[in-house]
Amino acid sequence: MLRRKKELEACLKTLCLSGMRLYYEELARTAEEQTLRYEEYLLELALRECEIRYNKRIARLLRDSKLPLEKNFDTFELKRLPHKLQHQVKALRDGSFVDRRENILAFGNPGSGKTHLLCALGLDLVHQNRRVLYTTCSILVQELLIAKRDLELPKVLKKLSRFDVVIIDDFGYVQQNREEMEVLFTLMNHRYERGSIMITSNLPFSKWESIFKDPMTTAAAIDRLVHHSIILEMNIPSYRMEAAKQEKKGKA
What we know:
The protein has twelve helices and five strands. The protein is of the alpha/beta class and 252 residues long. The protein folds into two domains: 2-64, no CATH class; 67-243, Rossmann fold, CATH 3.40.50. Helix 9 (178-191) links the parallel strand 3 (165-169) and strand 4. The longest helix is centred in the N-terminal third of the chain and has 28 residues, at 38-65. The N and C termini lie far apart (74 Å).
């Protein structure tokens, strides 16, 4: 009996079936008590294996995404948004826009909740088994510049293409020079119709020339982003300002 147990565990280890290895004894006792058929016992064991693999994959995707875990829909006040925008957000949560390679462009004043909303959507996508990357525009640009300097830009672009969605936060918040904007445009052009981009920006399209420094590049960038996109207009009062006012009222 002991020899068979060791052989079984060795086989499960070789086959990388850690879930089955962990639960086969417990489920065997349950099967005996409830007189389960062999197929029912095997199904329960397979389901445990699938559950463990799913949880491990989601944990890995969350780690790779670099998303702030606290910015989720449990902590997002959806009711602050206009009624139309609430419906847009609810429709986006099924993730089908990723299959259509559509972009999400969130515009609004500082503190309106753009970053929180896109991060919450990103976390939903991760739990749907999709690969997501969160980064700020300034950090992304610097990484692309370093890759270009080291003649590794194609390699980095290929690496980024493995993500179903790239979230670029604070687009245009920090003014960059022409070389920095050129590598950002290269990324946008590379992902065009290949993968979704989600962007937060305080600047409307009419002011994007200050980002790209050139009318032609600006028009090309907007054209690629807007061609397959959903625009979220978040022109609502600052959440931080409202919270500060409430805090002052409480103290008073």
